[in-house]
Amino acid sequence: MIQNQLSHINTDDGTSTLYSSKYKAHYHSLYGSFTESKHIFIDAGLAHVGGEEISILEVGLGTGLNAALTAQWAIANSKKINYHAIELYPLGPEHIKQLNFSQSLKGNASALWEQICYANWETEQQIDEHFCLLKQSIDFTQWQPNRMYNLVYFDAFAPDDQPEMWTVEEFKKIYNALLPQSVLVTYSAKGIVKRALSEVGFTIKRLEGPTGKKHILRATKSN
Fold it and tell me: Using CB atoms within 10 A of its CB, is residue 85 exposed (0-12), middle (13-18) or buried (19+)?
């Protein structure tokens, strides 16, 4: 197996990202890790979902940035979030320490990020009274859901880099694990992604992307 060797890079908004030699891809946009994460997953996803308690699935925990911003949002908005993250290649301490989120994230997001990164795997952890975390190290294509979700952050590497993640079969698995009126958000607006999501029953909306990206997708399960 090719090892997922990682190198550290700073992005245009001052926050870090990592580059994967295995997938030849960056974990975040070089235009800004924070900018991208907030625009796609918080503003276009989380802020669009109603309810006092929200169950989230993240496909691709990566650096933990999406989870940290979600925890920050939950506390600020007094919402209870149950967060389930799947990651085949968890970051080791050496890579966590390379990232500058402890210094670059604002408010309580930096402390929350550290708690999320160092939380135990395979067991639920109460990070805050508003944020319960479950991290699982598993191959998403082999994973089968055993709970229902209101929101999915689909943040795998791009379809060209990791095509097995973006298939009709995998999106169908997610669709069946979503409650009515639930949402999936992803940074990829490629035609093959839109067609796969539509085929399994999602209603697709193309939204304006963050800096450096024209469009992103929000997919809704109507019933």
Answer: buried
> Residue 23: inside a domain, yes or no?
no
Structurally, how many domains does the chain consist of? 1
Roughly what angle, to the nearest 10 degrees, separates helices 168-176 and 191-200? 40
Q: Contact 86/60 with Cβ under 8 angstroms?
A: yes
Residue 17's DSSP bridge partners are 9
pLDDT (average), residues 120-133? 98
CATH number of residue 163's parent domain: 3.40.50.150
pLDDT in tens, 147-175: 999 999 999 999 999 999 999 999 999 99
The model's pTM? 0.96
Measured in residues, the chain has a length of: 223
Q: Phi, psi at residue 55, to the nearest 5°? A: -105, 125
End-to-end, the C-alpha distance of the chain in Å comes to: 41
Q: Is residue 49 part of a domain?
A: yes
Distance CA 75, CA 171 (A): 30
Which residue range(s) make up the domain with 164?
A: 32-220
Asked if the model's pLDDT at residue 45 lies above 50, the reply is yes
Which residue stretches of the chain are H helix? 33-37, 65-76, 93-98, 101-104, 109-118, 168-176, 191-200
